[in-house]
Amino acid sequence: MKVAILGTGVVGQALARGFLGLQDEVAIGTRDPASDSARKVADEVPGARVVPFAEAARTCELAVLATAWSGTESALELAGPANLAGKVLIDATNPLDFSGGVPPKLAVGHTTSAGELVQAWAPAARVVKAFNIVPAPLMVNPELKGGPPTMFIAGNDAAAREAVADILHRFGWESIDLGGIEQSRLLEPLAMVFITYAFKFNHWKAAFKLLRA
């Protein structure tokens, strides 16, 4: 499968390595492939191509949005919504606002969510919220004492959610499908539970697990 990772940060790099481990072809999208930061990413994720956002989006079969929230809308504009039409777009973003320091707060919520905004900015893409409730080092093959953690997902397209659930299984997760993209209004505050905990206790290797009777 041809995968586009839109974003060069730690989340994008972690997921790029995960897809490369599944023998997928990976292109990492960036604003300037010639920049020092882009060249550094190319060195740190061998096997992945580092290309402009639009090229990554145009040539992929599946895309992952892994940008900081402040650059998300711009990244999608550069990628070109038409290039993502009909494709599964995994939204791993959280709408974090660091203007008041750390821990951050949510920039949007209650009546909308980052997931819903991403779907509006890429209206023909099949957006699925996933990977936003866990730190980058645990996104692929998490090894925790309590067993496989739980990833909650949301999106408007049932087949797209099934495709993402399969990826999660291959990455060592169990997943729970919450339904439509509006459920991102629950998943993004859930990420804040983890983020607040991590900043308070300086413990970044933890994930959620749903326990059933």
List the helices and strands and how they pair.
Blueprint: E1 2-6, H1 10-21, E2 25-30, H2 36-44, E3 49-52, H3 53-59, E4 62-65, H4 72-79, E5 88-91, E6 96-97, E7 105-106, H5 114-121, E8 126-129, E9 150-155, H6 158-170, E10 174-177, H7 184-201
Parallel strand pairs: 1-2, 1-4, 2-3, 4-5, 5-8, 9-10
Antiparallel strand pairs: 6-7, 8-9
Describe the structure.
Helix 3 (53-59) packs across helix 4 (72-79). This protein has one domain (2-201): NAD(P)-binding Rossmann-like Domain (Rossmann fold). It is globular, with a radius of gyration of 16 Å. It has an eight-stranded mixed beta sheet with strand order 3-2-1-4-5-8-9-10, sandwiched between helices. Helix content is 35%, strand content 19%. It has helices spanning 10-21, 36-44, 53-59, 72-79, 114-121, 158-170, 184-201, and strands at residues 2-6, 25-30, 49-52, 62-65, 88-91, 96-97, 105-106, 126-129, 150-155, 174-177. With 213 residues, it is an alpha/beta fold. The mean pLDDT is 97. The relative contact order is 0.14.
Say which CATH homologous superfamily is assigned. Answer: NAD(P)-binding Rossmann-like Domain
Helical content stands at 25-40%
**Over the alpha carbons, how many angstroms does the gyration radius reach?**
16 Å
Q: In whole angstroms, how far apart are the ends?
A: 38 Å
User: Which outline best applies?
Assistant: globular
